[in-house]
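Dear colleagues,

As part of the handover before I leave the project, I'm documenting each prediction I ran so the next person doesn't have to rerun anything. This entry is a single chain, and its sequence is reproduced below.
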Amino acid sequence: MTHAASSRRFQAFSLGVLAFTLVVILWGAFVRATGSGAGCGDHWPVCNGEVIPRAPSVQTLIEYTHRLTSGLAMILAVALYVWARKGHAKGHPVRSAAAWALFFMMTEALVGAGIVLLKYVADNASVGRALWMGVHLVNTFLLVGAQTLVIWFSRGRAPLSLRGQGLPGALMGLSILGLLVLGVSGAIAALGDTLFPSTTLAEGLRQDISETAHILIKLRVLHPLLAVSVGAFLVLASRWVARVRPSEDVRRAASAITVLYAVQLGAGVTNLLLLAPVWMQLVHLLLADFVWMAVVVLCAAGLAADAPRVVAEASPASSAEPV
């Protein structure tokens, strides 16, 4: 069952909300990378005990700007939800997608508040902070995914159908799970790069193999290994799904995943060789969000109730043929 497309104004607004959310996410990464998370102390939602900080430091300005933009993102999420409810008939998938987007925006705020109140900022190198960073990353991905689905369904796409999807459904589910695990490892690796920077590549490698290295340094070694393995799985799985769910939307998403992941791997290598400068960390994170959005679209198109189906004649490993 298909639903009517949303108005062009709603489609443009939902796209704008997603774009602004990505900006806020990148600014949050900038806060972490510059060690500005303690710019407002351990106060939340006020900043250093003040609604508007007086004579703020540079770190305070960076953190305070992040809080202001996060607040605006929350307002936009509420507006998107209200518009989705009022502008679409009951049962339209845009309504549920916008509801999830608002839910994850609220949990995003709660996670951010928890990080500040628990003092998991600045030079805190505890395992607890790494765990919270992982939770923060997962919630951020889910938020971006929900906002991506708002845009997707606003174009009149059919709702999802999870029953009877078989192996293609399992592969798409594993793709989502794999990216979440990879994202968590990336968040921990970025935290390790921030807290334990290296002046040369050789020094960084010595840190990685040292038996006395901090746990965050030891964990960051896992990220490139996961990046290669998860990337190979994503490309093969998406191309095979495009064969057994041969809609134009699925094929475009599969092609986007292949291209974006290749660029992302290149960015990861560049980030490593340049010793993780702040600007490259932001580029790497933005590309990760783009890959995630492409996988979400692949799942939405492949699991659509009206998605065409063909009988699979081979396993995913044989999908090296052009799509």
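The chain is about 70% helix and 0% strand. The CA atoms of residues 189 and 220 lie 4 Å apart.

All the best with the project,
I.
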